[in-house]
């Protein structure tokens, strides 16, 4: 018989698992990993409507995508164009970034799988006589290791030609040159930290759903058990 067990700790772990998966996915897809040096053009130096100076635009570069500004001289307006600069995996600017993409993708796939499974932990608490929380916690720990490897390898690719075109000639492995780190990189780091927190907290979720109080309510014949 299926028992729906909801506790404060198990619900918090489920929500945190979903948040972590989406956080890493959004960071991976973003082009805001590197913020390039300002590149003013003659069409951007003066605002035709106000006559004042325009702040130089700083393009952004991601693992496989980029954002840049395109000027329309005829209409005196500027559009920001974002999209992948690499049409396939082999066109990613650096071998280190290719490795980063692989490790991050593997970690994110595991996190998304755990996030999906975590929704069903209210009804299913074990798989092949093993706690589903412990299994998911182990998978989250493995995903965290993949994410760490990806984040360590990413700065090694700052010396590629693509990064140099954004960050200037002084950019090299682990040296930003004229660039600065964008929000996506910090978001990926924050998501990695939360991944390990989730892995540790999964043990608390398992303890909460297998506590004596839960067992007592099961013995009383209750199918819906909510403990907060």
UniProtKB/TrEMBL annotation:
What does the record say about its membrane topology?
Multi-pass membrane protein
Instruction: Report one GO cellular component.
Output: membrane
Q: Which UniProt keywords apply?
A: Fertilization, Membrane, Transmembrane, Transmembrane helix
Location in the cell reads:
Membrane
Superkingdom of the source species: Eukaryota
This protein's major location comes to membrane
The membrane-spanning stretches of this chain are: 12-35, 96-120, 132-154, 183-203
Q: Which Gene3D superfamilies does this one have?
A: 1.20.140.150
Regarding protein family, the annotation reads: Belongs to the LHFP family.
Tell me the protein's name.
Answer: LHPL2 protein
**Organism for this UniProt entry:** Phainopepla nitens
Q: Which gene encodes it?
A: Lhfpl2
